[in-house]
Amino acid sequence: FQSFPLWTVSVCPIPSSVITRPMENQLPRAHPQPNFDVDMGDDENLAPEPIDARLRRPLEPLHIYADENTAPQSEPMDTSSRPVATVAPMSTGPPPPPPDVVPEAPKRKDSEIKSSYQAEIDEDEYSLSMGDPYKGKGYLRLDINKFSEFCKGEPDKQQRTSKSVWVRGLPWKILAIPRAQRQSKSLGFFLQCNGTDQEGGQWNCVAHATLQVLSKRPGVEDHKRRITHTFYPKENDWGYSSFLTCDMLANPSSGYIENDTISLAVHVQAEAPHGVSWDSRKHTGFVGLKNQGATCYMNSILQTLFFTNSLRKAVYQMTMSPDEDPESSVALAMQRVFYDLSHVDKPVGTKKLTKSFGWDSLDSFLQHDVQELCRVLLDNLETKMKGTPVEDMIPSLFKGKMCSYIKCSDVDFESARDEVFYDVQLNIRSRDPTRHNQPFNIMDSFRDYVEAETLDGENKYDAGEYGLQPALKGVRFVSFPPILQFQLMRFQFDPNLESNVKVNDRFEFSDLLNLNEFVRDNEEGIDYTYYLHAVLVHSGDFHGGHYVVYINTDVKGKMAHWCKFDDDVVSRSTFKEACVANFGGDDPEVLGRIFTNAYMLVYVRKDSVDEVLCEVTDDDIPRHLKERFENDRQEEEKRKKDKQDAHLYLDLYFITDDILESHRGFDLFDLKILESPEVHKKIEKTAPFEKLFSFVQNNIINGENAMGEDCAFRLWQFQENTVRDDRQHTMSLPRFRATECKSLNEENMSKELEKVLSTEKALFFIERPTLNPDGTYSIPTYNDHLDILLFLKYYDFDRKEIRVVGHLIVNFRASLVEIMSDIAAKVNLPADTKLRYYEEISPEKIKPIESPSLPLCSDMMLAEINDGAIIIFERLDLVTPTDNAKTHIDTMYNIIEVEMYQNDDTTQFPCCILDNSPMMTGKVDLTWTCARLSEYVGSRIGWEPSQLLMWRLSAYAEKPTHYVTDGQLKHSNFRVRELLSLVGDQVHDPRKNKKYKVFYNKLPIPINELEKRKQMRITLMDDKFNTTDASVFPEKMGNVKNILEESRRIFKFSPNGSGRLRLVLVGTSNGNRRVMTIFQEEEPLQNVLKASPASFQLRVEEIPLDQERREINEFFLPVAHFDKNPTDRMFGVPFYFKVSDGESFQSVRDRLRQRLDISEKEIEKYKFAMMAGSRVSRYLDMDSDERVRISDLHQYQRGMPDIRGTPSFDLRQLLHCFQQGVYLGLDHFNRSRGSDRGRAEKAIVIHN
Fold it and tell me: Where is the MATH domain (predicted)?
């Protein structure tokens, strides 16, 4: 209990000149910092707020007194500082047992709805006793004696606290403080909880409480107020700073005081806390599920499915296909979750499950609909169960049948179709708008669901030979499944708000549901009576929120056992909390409850309870699953323990001759071998150094004597280092070299290993005895001052491979010629074989040894005169200039594997053709020119190399940065190495087996044409107002005609259109989305570009047949769409519409309807407005006798600057004139805005 926060209730008297009577509608406030110099105001109706942050500073020394209802003795006080509330000491030990005298809660009639088929377990019953510190409810009482003195005192000296009452493992108290107003005082009344430091400030607990001043006189009711609050360290008390005035409480006629004593009481009901050591298994018998970020919806449905016992048994019987990846197996992941929920005592993780869904980490942070996941998950499981003994399990549990029918009223004709369903969607409001404010329950919703709709008038039904007939259209249920799932339609589109909203209306449902009246022709005589099994609750609004689920875990029993599953926390609950509290509706006294209500209900048919909720035992779990999950759990526990104990051990890695001789790559071994358990060992850091040798002897050498002068092995410690090339001023790649011989001596044998090795990870080469000429084995002597260790690698010309063939210990003054016979003997060559030598400094630095007759210590020989150098040798009589050790190693180094991607960022080149080409892999050479690479990529993707745009990579982010120009493609020195930025400090390391990324784009023209033409982004619009983006490449010194000629290649003309194109300037922002001007064909390209800044676009469109010519009495009228406000709610595709002088408004309206291809009914919703700029000049009555006057429309063109052929013009003046022009506005609803779901949510997909 040390980790549980301390809860307290406090009370204070408060002077107040304005509080003369209790205000029933006053909202609760958190207890603020007392401040007698501040005007508290005349309005008590203040929203809840936390205690002033100034009270969160370190408290003064705490006042400890024997009687908590007695004020402390006066103490000297610094009047310059603000008074600080005195808080009872935090609990540092387990909660004390309740005192012998615990105030009993008054026995009152409970009006809550009781279960109709099971006895309700009373809170006190499942709490076992008042002494249970984890009970869900508590009653606190505080008697304030000497109330007159209490009212006169200072808040920091007169605050009173009650005795602690433990609820949900947390201690609660009443806190009372006298609070000063301007002319009088009031009682500050709070419920308090103080957490311990051990919780790290992370705990929180939601509580509902009723605060009461108890009546002392018959006929006077208790004064009550309710609060709901999430208590946490920074807001650990909540209540009213002005509960009642002290004058009123002290007045005997009020009925609240007797013998100068008032009594305060609190009924508190707390939910299970988060962030504390809450043992769900201990308190409920069940455990919760961890939340990955926003997976509460998934956790709720998983718990519901887990308690569907027959489904759980069926999931255990699912099998994996032999070629299925365990990590992507949804069946295995579900089995694991169900198994862990039954067998572990801590919250269960779901990351393996979401990974099996094919979700990434982002998917786990997206909120989704719980019913949608239920449907998708059950569909996935049903598919995977096919072909197994349980393939019919899900349909047998969830599938019902309904009949959709249309029945004629006047003739004998009916059309009917049976349909299956897995869930039923119920309205929470009547379909009749006049009944929206009337109470609505689940039976009302069912009757509303099956109520037939009348088809009459224009909606008559076509009954074939009977013609159009009035009819009734509806559905009737044929059968209900054993498990009946209801989705309550709380998320609906509000046409007034033009957005989706959550409907929080009250919707009542019962725990016993009789649906027999809704099933006709029940020939099987099934009793469709259902028990409520689960209530999935959503808190929040349409844009997001939180899901929990209440489940009756013992439907079969005589007593209902409701539990609340809130992610990782499970707690006992009551029927009222699970159901009645989640009917929805407005409860102004309980803040936040209006947003919390049932969203999905799960019922189980009465006659199927034993089958659906059958007992599940360990015998129902296949043995191989139990063994697998237990082994996984043990391995996980071992990994955790190893991680916890890692600081106690050294990681040792041992390389043997066998490992060296099997290696064919760079260096002496592959770093991946270090992951092998045969190589990787652990030993205590504090072990003496001499233990290292016995450890090697016992664990690797296996029994040979490792001590004494004739020890059977020698240890060389590898060091990772680099070599600097002073001539090129570069550093080599890191490499491991056996540079230090480790031997036992009296000085270090008793030292701790960690101090001798000076590292937590040590890599060793175990040198074993070698064969002597006389046939014996021994380890050659080694003098640290005279000898060096050389490793030898041989280039096998016939096999085309380089391999390690052994090592030598030689005098550092000897030459390679002197030891040539020893070297040749390593591969059984004659002693006089001519050899050529190289030093492998690092993978990218292979140095030929030009003078093998020089001593090894010569400056011209080795890069470093140190142990561990690698010498490569080859037969001089076999190799050629193009086939030798150097060329072989260069090839190994330069051949890389690449992944070829299409660059999807076309910002710089919008003309690029994006066709979703898949990623392809291949091998290329770092020494290739970019032209050759372009040919290779083109051959792989089937594209002309001259029309491929290759991209250089960033040196640090593997992202395309600059495109390769035509000149660079033709330059022989610009190679793949430069393309991948593998220059300077960025060096290719072949040991990492890295796959490099190559980015390309497909161009519509050869790359050498890019510099001669101007790339332009345009929009193409067809005759149906469909628009697409495209790129064209007119000549840089061209004109509009060139743009149109380029566009003709990609434009899709209408079958009976004009076949002619024009270029239009169009606004793109929500305040200027309209056509501005039509460019003349001879307009220079530079003027067009200058006249189209960022908030405009160039649109190519086919000239309508009626606009090919324009007479003197005709006008091209711009038309634009807007939704109520043209300032920032313009939308759609604007266009030009030709009108004639004297044409009637009705004619204009009819032709516009045809042009827009909308119905007469739809256009009746449109308003027509004459617009000037972004404002409405006037709305037009299109049914009037008014006619078009061209003279009025032509006025707006006066003063418009002429840009034709003018290389310089005032762009600001031009755009101003464009935007102030006259146009016709169509004011109507923007459907695309109304259909927006309103939240960043994508459909749930289980990919595997």
Answer: 137-268
Q: Is 625 helix (H, G, I), strand (E, B) or coil?
A: helix
Is the pLDDT at 568 greater than 70? The verdict is yes
Residue type for position 402: M
Among 465-479, 503-517, 795-809, 1085-1099, the least confident range: 1085-1099
Alpha carbon separation from 426 to 475, 509, 590 (Å, rounded):
13, 12, 27
Residues whose CB falls within 8 Å of the CB of residue 508, separated by 6 or more in sequence, listed in order: 439, 440, 441, 442, 583
Average of per-residue pLDDT across 987-992? 92
Give pTM, 2 decimals.
0.63
Q: How far apart are CA 231 and CA 191, in angstroms?
A: 10
Query: What does the domain layout of the chain look like in residue ranges?
Result: 6-68+85-94+135-270, 285-395, 397-612, 647-779, 790-879, 895-1009, 1019-1233
Q: Note the pLDDT of residue 1190.
A: 86
Judge whether 296 counts as a catalytic residue.
yes
Whether 852 contacts 837, CB under 8 Å: yes
DSSP class of 1120: E
What's the order of all strands across the beta sheet hosting 205-213? 137-144, 262-270, 205-213, 223-231
What kind of fold does domain 647-779 have according to CATH? Ubiquitin-like (UB roll) (3.10.20)
Q: Is the pLDDT of residue 458 over 90?
A: no
Amino acid (one-letter) located at 491: F
Cα 619 to Cα 389: distance, rounded to the nearest angstrom: 17
Does 614 have pLDDT greater than 90?
Answer: yes
Confidence check: pLDDT of 486 > 70: yes
**Mean pLDDT to the nearest integer, 604-624:** 94
Q: What is the pLDDT of residues 294-342, one digit of tens each?
A: 889 999 999 999 999 999 999 999 988 777 788 889 999 999 999 999 9
The CATH number assigned to the domain with range 895-1009 reads 3.10.20.90
CATH class of 790-879: alpha beta
pLDDT in tens, 1160-1190: 888 888 999 988 877 888 899 988 889 998 8
**Greatest mean pLDDT range, 210-214, 779-783, 1035-1039, 1229-1233:** 210-214
Quick one: which of 879, 837, 899, 842 has its CA closest to 665?
842
Radius of gyration of the chain (CA): 42
Provide the H-helix boundaries in 1125-1178. Answer: 1145-1156, 1160-1163
* Main-chain dihedrals φ then ψ at residue 728, nearest 5 degrees: -100, -5
Residue 711, pLDDT score? 53
With H, G, I as helix, E, B as strand and everything else as coil, classify residue 813. Answer: coil
Among residues 267, 533, 546, 888, the one annotated as catalytic is 546
The CATH fold of domain 285-395: Cathepsin B; Chain A (3.90.70)
Q: Which fold has domain 1019-1233?
A: Ubiquitin-like (UB roll) (3.10.20)
**Catalytic-role residue among 12, 205, 246, 296:** 296
Q: Contact at 8 Å (CB) between 116 and 510?
A: yes
Per-residue tokens: 937: 């990529």
Q: Which CATH class is domain 6-68+85-94+135-270?
A: mainly beta
